[in-house]
Structures
1.
Amino acid sequence: MLKIKKFPNTFTILFLLIAFFASLTYLLPAGKYNREMNEQLGREVPLPGSYHVIESSPQGFFDTLMAPISGFYDPISGVIGAIDVSLFILMVGGFLGIVTQTGAIDTGIARIMVRLKGREIYMIPILMTLFALGGTSYGMAEESLAFYGLLIPIFMTARFDPLVAVAVIFVGTGIGTLGSTINPFGTVIASNAASVDFLSGVELRFAILTIALVVGIGYVMRYAKKIQNNPDLSLLAHLRDDNEKHFLGGKDSTDSLPLLTGPQKGVLVLFILTFSIMIYGVSCLGWWMAEMATLFIFMGILCGIVGRLSEDDLINSFVAGAADLIGVALIVGVARGIVVVMEAGNITDTILNYAEGLVAGKSSVLFINTVYGLEMLLSFIVPSTSGLAVMSMPILAPLSDFANTGRELVVTAFMSGIGTVLFVTPTYGVLMGGLAIARIPYVTWLKFIAPLVAFFVVLNCIILSIGASLYS
C-alpha cells in the first residue's frame, strides 16, 4: 500500500517556487508593458496591447539564493521590500502576547459562559460572534487552540458534543477570516501587495462577514439543538462514552473559573480602542506600516501597565508574542523573493501578457470569480494567508487592470478564496490541531462542514459578482 508522505512545509514550497520562477527566466522571453498614470487609481497601470520583448536577464544561482533576502529589502539600492510588513507583524505579535499574558480575553469569555449556565444554547451565537470578531480584526487562528480545552467540557455538560465546541471556535474564527475587514495578516498584507488601501472594498468584506456569520450561527445552533434533544443523532454518538470519560471525568467544568478583574476590563477596552485607532489612522491620517507598528508597540505597553504586569512579564510576553509570529514575518519576505526573481528577470509582464490574452474580452464578473477559484486552488498548496498574499497579489492585482476590475475586489476574492479552503484543508495546522484536541475524525468534520462550505462558495460568488458591477 502506498504510504502518503507529509505535505511540504510552507517555507519549502516557497523556496521551490523561487527556484521554479528563476528557471523560467531562462525559458520565457523578457518583456515590458508601457505604463501610464491612472488618476482614478492613483498609480501607474500597464497599457493593454503595449507589451514588447526586451533583452533577457536570466537569474543565476547566486541571484536565486539572494532572492529571499532581497524580498525584505534591495541590498543594492536599499529600497524597502517586505521588511516594513514583517516588522509590523512582529509588533502585532508582541501586542497580542501582552494582552494574552493579562488573561483578559480568556477570562472574559470564561465569565460569559458562567453567566449563561443553564442557557448554554445562547453561548453559540455570542461566542461565535466574538471569535469572528477576533478573526476579522487580528486574524485569530493559533490563539484559538487555547479555548478548546476550556469549551469542550462546558458544552458537553450542556448535552452537546465536542463537534459543537469545535464548530463554535473554528467556524467562528474561520468566518472572521472569510470576511476579513482589517485583519493585519491577511487583508492588510494583501492590500499592500496589491498597492491599494486595505479599507478599500471593506463594504463587501463586511457583507460577507455578516451574512456568513448569521448563516453559520444558524447552522451550528440547528445541529446543537438536534443532538441536545436526541444525542443519538450526534456525528460522534459512537464515541460518546469515551469522550465523556476523557473530557468530563465527573468534574464540574465551571469550577475555579477566575473573575474578570478591573485591570482586565481596562485591557479589553484598550484592545478594542487599538483597532479603532488603527482604522482612523489609516483612513483619515494616511498611516501605513510604520505608524501602525508604532501604535501596537505603544498600546501593548499601555495594556501591560493597565493589566498590572511586572516589568519582566511585560517585556517577556512581548518578546514571546513576537516570537510566535516570527515564522509569519519570515514567510512574507521569502514569498516576496518570488516577485524579486520575476521582476529582476523581467518575466512578470510576460506572464501578465499571457494572462491578458485569457481575460481579454471577458466580463469582470467572470474574471473575479476565476480569481476566486484560482485562490482556492492555490490555498491548498500554500495555506499561509500572508505567504499566499505576497505571492499571488503582484500578478493578479495588475491583471485586474486589464479586466477593468478594481484591485480591491481582487483582495476580497483572495481573502474569500483562502478563507473558504481553510475550513477543509488538511494542510492547515490550526484545523488539524483543533480536531486532534477534540478527538474528532477528519472525515467526520468534512461531513459536518461540507454543506456550510458549499453555501460560503455560493455566497462569495454572488458578493464578488455584485462587487464586479460596483467596482468595474
2.
Amino acid sequence: MENGSSSGDNKSSPKPIRCKAAVCRKAGEPLVMEEIMVAPPQAYEVRIRIICTALCHSDVTFWKLQVPPACFPRILGHEAIGIVESVGENVKEVVEGDTVLPTFMSDCGECVDCKSHKSNLCSKFPFKVSPWMPRYENSSRFTDLNGQTLFHFLNVSSFSEYTVLDVANVVKIDSSIPPSRACLLSCGISTGVGAAWETAKVKQGSTVVIFGLGSIGLAVAEGARLCGASRIIGVDINPAKFQVGKKFGVTEFVNSLTCENRRVSEVINEMTGGGADYCFECVGSSSLVEEAYAFCRKGWGKTITLGVDKPGSQICLNSSDVLHQGKILMGSLFGGLKAKTHIPLLLKRYLNNELELDKFVTHEIKFEDKGTSHWGHTNVTNQYSFINDNKRLSLKHLSPTQGPRRTTCWTESSLFLRSFKASSRGNKHEYYHLSKSLGWTKRRSKPLNDGRPLPASHQSEASII
C-alpha cells in the first residue's frame, strides 16, 4: 500500500486507484465499507482525495429512497473538501495539490446562464440526480473489486477516499482554511445562506420566517442575520431548537404543534401584522410550502422553497390568491449561488469573522474502519450520524434533543479526531485520542490555520494500480 498520489510518469498518465469507500448496496440498509477501484480522470475531469465530508440530509433522503432517481449500488456523499490528485486533459483551472470544494451544481463558465448574473442553473450541465458523470452519459469512474459498476451521486460521491468530478463541479480554495469548516460550503450552508443573501436578497430591517430549523434552516437564519433582518422567526415542532436557533440569529419561535386550532399562517400573520417579508420552507413538504406562501406579505412578500420533497409531490395554490395578492414563490437550488464566484466570497467572510461556520459542526468522526463497535453520537437533533459496526456503516437517525447541525467525517487514516475550540489566543484545534471505551484523551494543540500539509500519519492510504 502506498499513498494515493502517484510519482514519476503518473502525472501524464494517471492510473486506477484502489481505495476504501462506504457503498450503499440497497435502500435503507447499512453502508458497506469496502475496497473499490477509482478510474483515472478523463478529459475535463479531476480526481481528488477526500479530506473530510459532511453528512447532508439529502444523502439520507436518497439512501432511503426506493424509487427513481434512486439506484444501487451507489456511493453517496456530496458535501466535502479534497486535494487534487490528478487531472485529465484540457483541465486548466486546477493542478495536482490544489485544495478544492466539490459542488453538486455545475458552473461551466461558458453557457448563457453561467455567464449571466441572473441564474446559477448551468444549461450545459443541467442539474439532475444522475448516476453518471455529467459530461459522459452512461459512464462511471467507480467499480467494486468484482468489476461491478458503482453509481455516482450528485456529481460528487464523497463517501470514498478518492472520487472523480467534472472540472465544472470543483472550486479551488485557500488551503489554509480548516477543512471541516470549508466543506460545509460545498452544499448545505451555502444553500441556506445563499437563499437569504442571493435568492431572496433579504433587506435590512425586514421580517423573515423560516419553516424548519434543521441545518439548512439555521443557515438561512445565519444568512438573514448577515443581511440585517430585524426579526427572524423560526417555526418548528421541537421547542429545543429555539435555544439553538438563537445562536444563529433567530429572535422568535413558533411551535406549530401548540397553535391549538389555529393555522400557523394565522399565528404568523398576527405576529407580523399582515405577513412576513420573506418566508423560507426548509423541510421539503409541499403542504408547508403552501402554508409559508399563506403567511407571506401580500404585495411584496417572497416565499422561497429549499427543502427536497418526495418525487411527484405537487403544490396547490388558489389561482385567485396568486393573481390578487402579488406574492412571489420561487425555488432555490444551492441558494442561487454560482459556486466558483460566491464560495470564495463566503470563505472570505468566514475568515473575516462575519460568517460563523464553527457553530454548525456538532461532531467529527473518522471515516476509516477500526473495528470499533460504535462510532455514533447522541443528542443531535434531526441529525444522522455514522454508526460503524465492524465493516458496516449505518446512517442512524438519532433522537431530537439538541441542535441539528453537521457531522463531519474525516477520511485520513489517523488515530485522532479533531475537536475545534476557540480560545482568547485565537482559534486553535486540539487533537484527542479516542480510546476503545470511547473516552476522550487530550493529546496536543496547534494553530488552526497553520496551512501546513497533514503529516503522513494523517493521510489516507491507497494503492496505485
3.
Amino acid sequence: MNGNKAMEDANVEVEECKEKMVYMWGYLPGASTEKIPILSPTQVPLSLASDSWKDVCGGGCGFAMAISEKGKLITWGSADDEGQSYLTSGKHGVIPGPVQLPTEASVVKAAAGWAHCASVTEEGEVYSWGWKECVPSGKVIIDFTTGGSLQKDVAGKQSSPVAEQGSPQSSNTSSGSDSHHDNKKVGADVVKRRKISFARPESDSPASGDEFFTMSPSLATIGHGVKITSVAAGGRHTLALSDVGQVWGWGYGGEGQLGLGSRVKMVSSPHLIPCIESAAGKDRSSTFQQGSSVGAQVSKVPGSYVKEIACGGRHSAVVTDAGALLTFGWGLYGQCGQGNNADQLRPTLVPLLLGTGVEKIAAGLWHTLCVTEDGQIYAFGGNQFGQLGTGSDQTETSPRQLEASCFENKRSSIVSCGARHSALLTDDGHIFTWGWNKYGQLGLGDAIDRNIPCQVPIAGCRPRNVACGWWHTLLIVDKSV
C-alpha cells in the first residue's frame, strides 16, 4: 500500500509539473505589430490572472479562439482594419482577451465561421454573434411543411447571401460559382459587404453595418429542455449537437447545408435536422417536404443518435454512434463524398465508408476529412491546393484513404480543416499539416503549398489538440515546466 501511495504521489508531482501552452501560426494580422504571416509555431501568452489555457477552438477569418481553464472564451489576432473580423473577435489583437458573454456560465465549446461565432456553456446554452443572418432571431422565416422557398427578414427585405472569404486579400470572392444566385443581386451584396469590411470599429452606428452585424452575443432559443454539448460553424450556417444526439441547424441553407430537404435560403431559428430514423419512429422533422428530385422519406442509417458534427463552407457532415458518416449541402467539388458533384439536400449516407467506423470528422471550405476507429484517415472534395493530402491536385468525389509513408505505425486521432488546409494529430503526439500555405498556415517555416502530410517541427512538448481557423492553425500542448 505504501509503495502504491508513493507511486501515486510521484504521478501527482509529474502532473503538477506540466503546463498547457498554445501555439499559433498562419495569418493573424493583429497578433504582432508587424502584421505579417507567422510561418512557424509561436507561443501565445495568456496574461489573465490565475487562469491558464484549456483548449483551442480554431477561430474565424483573421482571428483565433480558445478556452481557458476558468471557462472564458479567449480571442486574439485581429487587426482594427479588418472590419467585421475585428468586431467578431471582440476587438482583441496582440493580447488575448475574454469575450464578454451575457452569462457567468463556463464556456465548454466554441466555433467560428466566416463572420460569426457560436459558443456552448456548461449549462447547455448556445450564444452566437456576428453576421445577423447567422444569429438566430427566434422568428421562423419559413414553414418547411409548405415547401416554400422565399425567405424574408422581419423588415420584409430578402436576406442577402454573403460569399465566404477564400483569402485575406479577396474578401469579395465566393467559394465557387452558384447558379442559384442572381448576378445583379450578388453585385449589390458585395457593395453592402464592403461597407462593413472597411468600417472602423469606433463607429457602431447603422452606417457602419449595424443593419447586418451584431457584436452582442445572443442566446439561441432551441427548444424546451434541450441541452447542447457541441457546436460547429460553417461559412454562414451553424449546427448544434444536443446531449441526446439530435442535430439542430440555422443560418443560410441555399445548397442544402441545413439538411432540411430544400434550398431554403435562410433559417433564422434553430430547426431539428432529420438525421436518423429510430425504431420508435421518425424524427418529427422528417415530415418536412423534400425537393422534387429527392424522395420525402428519411433513409434508415446505422445508429441511434449523432455523436459528431462538422460544418464546411457550404456543406455539413455528421457521424452516428454506429460510425456512419452522413453529409449534406454543396457538392460541386465532391465534398459530400457521394461519388458525384450533386448537392445533397438531406443528410445522406456516404456508402464507401460504411463499416469503417468513422470516429472524427472535419470540413473545410471545399473538402472533408474523417478518421476511422482503426486510425485511418480519408479525404474527399476540392484539392486545388493539395488540401486532401493525396499527393496531387485532383478532386476526389469519393473518400480516398491517405497512405502517406509518414503515417506508418501511426494512428490518426484528431483532424481539423482550415479554408484550404488540413491538420492531423496522431495518438503518439505528432502533428502533420498539408494544403494551402500562402500565409504559413502549415507551420513549416515557409509559404510553400504541400500536397502530402508534413510533420510540424515542435519539440519539448506533447500536443493534445489541433484546431484550424480559416487561414491559421492553433495547437495546445502539455509542456514540462
4.
Amino acid sequence: MLYSRCIYRSFKRAIKFIYANYATVSDLSPQDRITFLRKMALPRARENPMIMKMDTIEFRSIFSHELQALITLFKEYGFEIRIAGGAVRDLLMGIKPKDLDFATTATPTQMKDMFTAENVRMINMNGEKHGTITPRINDKENFEITTLRIDVLTDGRHAEVQFTTDWMLDALRRDLTINSMFLGLDGCVYDYFYGYDDLKKRRIAFVGDAATRIKEDYLRILRYFRFYGRIAVDPDKHETETLTVVKENASGLENISGERIWMELKKILEGNFAGDLMKTIVKCGIAPYIGLPEDPDTKELEKVWRQSGHNNLNAITLLSSLLYTQEDVVALNARLKLSAFERDLAMFVVQHRNPKLHSNPLMPYQQLVVKAKSKPTDIKKMATEVLKYNNSPYIDDFEKWEIPKFPVSGTMLKEKGVEGGRFMGVVIAELRQVWADGEFKLSAEELLEELPNVLNVLATKRKHK
C-alpha cells in the first residue's frame, strides 16, 4: 500500500506542470482536456518494481575493466546508475547487447564536475542538452549516461525535458513496456509497467495510453512495428486497440524527417515478418506519409514476400515492390533522402523486375552489368537483387559469375587513330555495348573491326546535336 502511494505521488509530480498553466481543468479546450485526463490515467504499475536478480553469462560478460571503474566512480560520489532500455530487454532474452545505455540520478552538471575532478575525458558534448554525458574511461571505452528525466513539453518530434531522480517517472516517458525496464549493476531488474511479462508473452504494448505516447513522438508508430518484428512470434497478432490508435495518428508522421523515418523503416524491412508488417502499415493508412503511393501495390508486395521473402532481400528491394513507376521512386527518394545506391537500386528494380526471356537466363543481367555507365560491381549487386526479387534459381550462379575483362584498351584505340580524352571514353563505351550484345565472345581484333561503324554512328550523333 505504501508503495502504491509513492507511485501516485510520483505521477502527480509528472503532471504538476499542467496545473501551473491552468487554474482548473475547465479552462482547457475539449481536446486539451482529453489529453490532460489521459495523462492522469496512471498505467498499471507493480507494487514492487524489483522483480528478479540477474546472474547470467550474458550479464557477466558486459563487465569490462572500464565499466567496473565507472561503477566505482558513481558509488564514490553517491549517484545511482543503472542500465536502461533495450540492453535490459536483450539481456532478459539471453542476448548480449551490442550497446549499453545508462541512466543515472546525477544531473549533467554533477556528472561533468565528477569526471573533471577525476580527470576523465568527455566526448560528444552535443548530447548534454538532452541530459547525456559520454565519458571515455581509460581512453578505451565510451559510455553514454543520461540523467533521469520527464518530458514536460512535446510537439510530436522533440521534447522539452526536466531532470528528476525518480526512476518510475523516467520509465513512464518511454515508448514501449519492454523498453522501460532498468537493470542495476548488482543484477537487480526493475520493471514498473510489466515489461517483463509482455516480453515473455512476446507482446508489444505502449507504456500507459498509446495515443499519448505516440503524440509525444510520432516516430513511435514505426518503432512499434519494428519491435513487433523483433519480438513477436506471429506475423499478424496485433492488438486491435493499438492499430486503431496508430490509424488515428498516422498523419503525424508527415512532419517527421525522412532520415528518421527511413532509419526505422529500414529496420522493419530487414527484420522478421517484413512483408506482413508492410501490409499492416499500408492498411493503417501510413503509406502517403512515408513516401509511398496513396494506394501502394500490395498485390506485388504479397507476391514478392511469398516467393522471395527467404532470399534476404535488401530493404529497398522489398520496399520497391510497393511502387508502380519510376516517378514513384523519385517521390520516395525525395521523402526518405535515400543514399545514392539505395535510390539507384529502387530505380533499377522497378525498371528491370519484369522477366527477361533468353536461352541463357543470366545473359540479360550480365549484359546489364557490362553495358552500365555506373560502377559494374554496383550494377551486379542490383541485378542480384532483381534475381532475388523474382526468386530466380540462378542467384548463386550469378553471384559466382566474374565480370569479364573488356579486351580493348586505350592504347589499341590510339594506334587506330582515335583521339584521347573524353571522346575515347565514349568510343570504349560504344564498343562495350557491341561486345555485350555479342555475349562477350568477340575478341579485341573483332571489336576493332567494328571501330569504323562505331565512329560513323558517333559522328552522326554529333551532327544531330
